[in-house]
Amino acid sequence: MKAHSIGVVSLLLAGAIWSETCFAQFPSFPNLPFNLPGGANNAAAAAAVAGLVVYIIEKHEASERQKQIADERARRAYANMSPKRKAALKAKRVRYIAVDTEKNDKTSPQARKSVMVWDTEKQEVAGNHVYDVKKSPTVGETAKFDKYSAEYVGSGS
Q1: What CA–CA distance (Å, rounded) separates 23 from 129?
Q2: Which residues span the domain enclosing 82?
Q3: Residues 85 and 128 grouped into a single domain
Q4: At what angle do helices 40-50 and 3-25 cross, to 10 degrees?
Q5: pLDDT per residue as tens digits for the range 48-73
Q6: Which of 53-57, 78-82, 120-124 is the least confident region?
């Protein structure tokens, strides 16, 4: 996603949240075309959705070592998840988890982390790509990595 697109989405989202908070102060404030019905609860949900955007610097093919590390960490993270958390993933229809792997010579110098996606149903790494990210999501947050919506588990510990 280009920086301009992120800026526009952020501006619209900030305007929607701001307009919702204005209704408490100024009941006659006009509705905006992107206004969120339902007040602060929906504004908070919109802010949470905005947090799902992960800035992927580069996507490249994973080395065998990166796949091995991602697989080990993801298996450990999934095994340590409580049944309640696994049920919550299923309820949210989140099939994938995103896990940190090691950086290598293909990793972008601007990347803070290298992340891979793991399939909880097949119990294996999904695809063969590493996503170099400028800022990783918060652990427990669901984010989009290419075509995968994955809950970020960090290093899986």
Answers
A1: 46
A2: 56-154
A3: yes
A4: 170
A5: 444 456 678 999 999 999 999 999 99
A6: 53-57
